[in-house]
Design brief:
The protein is of the alpha+beta class. About 20% of the residues lie in helices and about 55% in strands. Strands 1, 2, 3, 4 and 5 form a five-stranded antiparallel sheet that branches.
Length: about 80
Amino acid sequence: MILGGNIVSTSGEEIEQKSGMISRRILSHTVEAKDGTKHVGIEISENAMLGKSLKSIRLSRQEAEKFVRMLNESISKT
């Protein structure tokens, strides 16, 4: 529910990063709201020795497409 609805599906891939005693995981979900609309949910979790945090980002289809374009632009410059 932190993503604004029920998770309908989760991407088959995830990103895992480890730096010292901290590990991060990024997941992408398709989320369906109570009114039936669907959106993209991005989950970023961070685990450390002393705690855990979870951040969520909710994007409409148009926002997700724009985010992909932004990422592709940055990727092309690396």
